[in-house]
Amino acid sequence: MTDRRPFSTPLRLLDDARPAPRERAAGPSASPPPQRTPAPPLLDEPSLFYDPPYADPVHDTFAWHLVKYLKPGSGLRHQVNGPRAPTVDLGIDFVVEQGAWRVGFMCGASDAGQEHDRRCDALCIGQAAVDVLYRLRVEDVEARLHDALLLVAKWDAALFSERGRINLNTLATPEARAAHPGPDDTVVTVSYEGAREADGAHEADGARGAVDAETLRLRRVSRSHPEGWRPVYEQARRAAGLPAGPSPKRWARSA
Length: 255
Prior knowledge:
This protein has a domain at about 40-175 and about 220-255. The chain has helices at about 55-65, 115-125, 140-145, 145-155, 160-170, 175-180, 195-200, 205-215, 230-240, 250-255, and strands spanning about 75-80, 90-100, 100-105, 130-135, 185-190, 215-220. By secondary structure, the protein is of the alpha+beta class. Strands 1-2-3-4-6-5 form a 6-stranded mixed β-sheet, sandwiched between helices. Residues about 5-25, about 40-45, about 200-210 and about 250-255 have low confidence and may be disordered.
């Protein structure tokens, strides 16, 4: 893995780094030197920076790329504790904070399976740990992260800087650029050329694995659209022994 530690310190606002020209010694006929217009700062990211070590190489890769595109002034937190529940771990891998708005990211699936992860995601949203929660597959973080982040930007454009959105659109594949998830969608799947070729023979041995390898799948749950996760949340909440949490009307107004 690439050693990224030289970039682990906070990035500071730098003044004009170019040396000022030498001024001539003042004399009887010397005129006052012209006023120099200060050059713009070279870098201004006061609270957002790559800060290893992370839990594993997948988290490291995600953080290394994500901070390049987020809006300046955002904060990035790693391994954030979710709502306390006696029977389930509700930690969130990453949380981006912009004022009171919090967007969480989960990188990969748990060993307990997809249904378990859906319940955990619903609990984090329903208990107001974050306003929006994304779940990415490990293979998509490793191989198609620019595509995944572009889809995030299509859902939540305010999370990214204008330049970050432009760069993601440039780096993403045509298939990801053609995807247009709706505001109330909870899952978006992008199929690539290799997946379409293998789809006709999906019943052959190993073909289904090839199809999965040539698709991107991103899940999103949001407090502003509780209809996408509310039924799962109610079942999971009762099983975990958690209180009901805020009402759907409060979720919709605050998101």
